[in-house]
Amino acid sequence: RKYVYFFGEGKAEGRGDMKELLGGKGANLAEMTSIGLPVPPGFTLSTEVCTEFYKNNRQYPDGLTEEVEKNLARVEELMGKKFGDPENPLLVSVRSGARVSMPGMMDTVLNLGLNDETVKGVIKQSGDERFAYDSYRRFIQMYSNVVLGMNGEILEDLLEEMKEERDVELDTQLSSADMKALVQQFKDKVKETLGRDFPTDPREQLWGAIGAVFGSWMNPRAITYRRLNNIPAEWGTAVTVQSMVFGNMGDDCATGVAFTRNPSTGEKIFFGEFLVNAQGEDVVAGIRTPQPINKGKGDSDLPSMEEVLPECYAQLMKIQQILETHYRDMQDIEFTIEKHKLYMLQTRSGKRTARAAVQIAVDMVKEGLIGEKEAVLRVEPRQLDQLLHPSLDPKASKEVIAKGLPASPGAVNGEVVFTADEAEDAARIGLKVILVRIETSPEDIHGMHAAQGILTARGGMTSHAAVVARGMGKCCVAGCGDIKVDYSKQQFATKSGAIIRKGDVITLDGSTGEVMQGAVPTVSPELTGDFAMLMEWVDKFRKLKVRTNADTPNDAAVARKFGAEGIGLCRTEHMFFDAERIMAVREMILSEDVEGRKKALTKILPMQKSDFKGLFREMKGLPVTIRLLDPPLHEFLPQKEAEIEEIAKVMGVDASVLRHKVDYLHEFNPMLGHRGCRLGITYPEIYDMQVQAIMEAACELIQEEGYRIVPEIMIPLVGHVKELEIMRANAVRIADGVIERLGAKVEYLIGTMIELPRAALTADEVASQADFFSFGTNDLTQTTFGLSRDDAGKFLPQYVEQNILPNDPFVTLDQRGVGQLVEMGCEKGRKARPGIKLGICGEHGGDPESVIFCHKIGLDYVSCSPFRVPIARLAAAHAAL
Ligand code: ADP
Ligand code: MG
Ligand code: MG
């Protein structure tokens, strides 16, 4: 078996499409090498090494050492240097890289191979002592932290002390002697802290670093990131060992990162940041403020690369063009300039906001780089969520207290917190918070996830906060130099002198970088232009219809704008909670006999009728599924003593009567209690009234306004065909009665929700009484798992964390279990009644993975909340392509 893949001097054993084996970084380094771009030579240990490593109790496969030695020799030959040679040493970087990039999760070690002997060789070759010791001290810092597990701040503090002693601000201002002194201090400190010498043998260093990269695959941060992003642990990481090039050899050297297009807006403008005389992650880490690459772009007044290093700039522009055309996608690149010579160190498809994803996809179709299908596939359904979210109301007044970089768009407000843990705690109890940090690091991921938005004082557009926030679709304002964060006082001060304390509300605008005091109102998103164009293509390719769950004409209107093709679920109970109606509803519940109930229901009838008219009108002839009353009646009664008394007074009944009724209706397990069609069986007059309201609304609209309406009446919680048989007969009697009385020509359908396992198992019988099935996957998940959704919060997160379940089954459909019931229900239903309409109306209808499943099993439509309609449309297109 081959474990190591070489690249260098125009030839590579790997290719760009070998990401599974070589990781994204390794595969693209190979690809860039083959297409003739300047890439320092090196080799990649495949992800199979990682998998074997963990399979065999953290032992490498046989023959790996020999393979690494062979490849190292090839690099030595190309570079004309020897690893560990005191005269002319080869230095390497050891880099991690999984199949998909995991920002900040895995650490890279640079300048590996240095010790007290080889550093002299570096001095001899470069003639630059300062550079040699700068590299050496960086190596000790990185290695002791990443490989030896020492707290990075310990050595960072020594560096800070040195700068203070010399009264300088920047690392670059320290002299050669300072760097040399630091190396000694660092080595001493490592020994003091860890109780052993810093390793001097280059081969020990190399294997230490390789082991650390493989080891980091299982560190808690990486595990968290994988969990949040659904990345399987089995994938493993690759390790790339690559000969070093140096951006820290003086002012004709530099290092930088860039995007071939703007990752925030999608605008077709090469966009990036760099630092002169710097190395590795200096740009991202915010050690100095990075300079822009293009002249006059961005907010920076620092000189651009275009001005400082014009020939390198020209070369970089050419290369980025080559890369984009080659990969046919926006690239995120990392480069280093050593003595005016440009080297490419990484390229990958750049992470982007939803807005940028849409713009880039549409632009690339216009440019002829990709086709419509590919454009549709380029936008992640989940990501669209960002676009469908509000932005600041342009008419609202706002008090801007600071301005940073517009790192990730959206407009959010919340209470200020200063630590990731606080953010998580607050989110758990339902508070909206903004996480404010000087800068973020991978340890903050859980807090970033929990917060509405992120504000950092330091760091650029490519800082950790910016990259991670964009990936999560979170609003982020980064590098806000206007604010001074004081963790110890739990507050930050703005340039203008405002003090914002923990718990104060602020608003962030991730599209402009503005920070505002208080909560500024927001408005709904604009769905025209590129977005509309992309969605047009989406609709061309998808087979699955997308409806919405909507209870009010207003919801329905929003959903129509998002492209809903009907209502898949109207929950009529929501109409009962209205302040005006609840009294009549309660009167109905409290009635002792049928006559009393009917009287109360007569009051509700006209209100229900006008609700349905509103919905039908809004949907303009599109199908509308209306579910008859579902929840147990006690939900409409007051529960607290004070409320009971107050309401009894208003209703003119004795408090004891009301209390007695509340007690009587109390259920031990309401989820499995007197609800759904069980209400219809015991109190048929309730459903009768609802069917009457639906049919009268339809008849009147058809007669008055000429719509074509086919109402779909849905009976909930059927477990046995007999239940549906009775409910159907009742509904038909009422519906036909209305039609005859009003003399209108209206068709209607009567169907059921499949939300109990028994209904799915006997779907053939149930289908004999149903014109359609709508899979109510929320209840079906509850009843299949025997898992109460309202109580699952106490243990379900742990199930996901411990990987007992791959994800929350209420969010993403459990295809193995619940999905099997859905599939069976479809098959049996279709067999018994060919042409039966099949849909799904649980939360899953807006979850991309679940939508893809629904497509596969051949449902006619999914139905989801209005804001998720475009997500479902796009997911349905992905499923079809
Ligand atoms: P990450 O996965 O965090 O992006 P990388 O492996 O890309 O980590 O390394 C981070 C940075 O280190 C790179 O962007 C580059 O600037 C620098 N680097 C890595 N390898 C080399 C090398 N061989 N020569 C010079 N710089 C390197
Ligand atoms: Mg990194
Ligand atoms: Mg990188």
TrEMBL record:
EC number annotated for this UniProt entry: 2.7.9.1
GO molecular function (one): pyruvate, phosphate dikinase activity
Residues bound to Mg(2+): 755, 779
Catalysed transformations (reactions): pyruvate + phosphate + ATP = phosphoenolpyruvate + AMP + diphosphate + H(+)
Annotated InterPro entries: ATP_grasp_subdomain_1, PEP-util_enz_mobile_dom, PEP_util_AS, PEP_util_C, PEP_util_CS, Phosphohistidine_dom_sf, PPDK_AMP/ATP-bd, Pyruvate_phosphate_dikinase
Domain of life: Bacteria
PEP-utilising enzyme mobile domain boundaries: 433-513
Record carries keyword Repeat: no
Metal-binding is among the record's keywords: yes
Protein name according to UniProt: Pyruvate, phosphate dikinase
Organism per entry: Geoalkalibacter subterraneus
